[in-house]
Amino acid sequence: LPRLPNMRLSIEKLSCIRGGRTILSDIRFEVRTGEALVLLGANGAGKTTLLRVLAGYIEASQGEMAVEGGDDPESSIGEMCHFVGHLNGVKSKFTVRENLEFWAEYLDSENPDNGDMTGGAERRIGEALAGFALTGLGDVPAGYLSAGQKRRLCLARLLVAKRPIWLLDEPTVSLDTKSQSLVTDAVNNHLATGGMVIAATHIKLGLDNSTELTLGGARGQG
């Protein structure tokens, strides 16, 4: 598989205040090509907030976020990342395949493969279906899926468009042990091709080349 370009994501003195309450304070870390950072901490410690700040959904109160390397040095972290949060973002009336076709076009709209879902886009959709054990469900409306199947469909969009940075917030929610192993395999394959991953989790994911960062903080929604 082709490797992603060498990159380094660095965070310095990052803080975030929401509603007058400090959620994150003086956060510092670095992630390089092929590395994973696992965010640990109790509920309310700030794991979700940190991921949403990195994705550009929440503005940091202070601090610096920078990415060195990559195909486009002018891109922000948000433009380089896949973000998978608590909500699945699945369109119930669309079939499983139609959901992935939507994400392929939306996430990679500048790729000429996407126009009629042929070529590279079609190949990536097939890989996403296979990678998350959804091949036999391609024509099933997403509204008929179980909670675990919907979560796998949500995660499958990671594979339909190449993004170097994956931000994952409790990616294994609603998944059984076998399905959790599919997540681990997908993440480790991404790392092996030069990707970077920052994941918040309460369970061991078994990721290759990973370090941990434990967040603390006040009680409440993080």
Distance between the termini: 37 Å
DSSP strand content? 25-35%
Mean pLDDT: 91
Helix- and strand-based class?
alpha/beta
User: What order do the helices and strands follow?
Assistant: EEEHEHEHHHEHEE
Largest pleated sheet: 5 strands, parallel
Q: Uncertain runs with pLDDT below 50, 5 residues or more?
A: 110-117, 218-222
> Level of helix content?
25-40%
Task: List the strand order in the largest sheet.
Answer: 5-6-7-3-8
**Globular, elongated, flat, extended or rod-shaped: what is the shape?**
globular
Set down the secondary structure blueprint.
Blueprint: E1 7-18, E2 21-32, E3 36-40, H1 47-55, E4 62-69, H2 77-80, E5 81-84, H3 96-107, H4 120-131, H5 147-156, E6 165-169, H6 177-192, E7 196-200, E8 210-214
Parallel strand pairs: 3-7, 3-8, 5-6, 6-7
Antiparallel strand pairs: 1-2, 1-4
Helix pairs in contact: 3-4
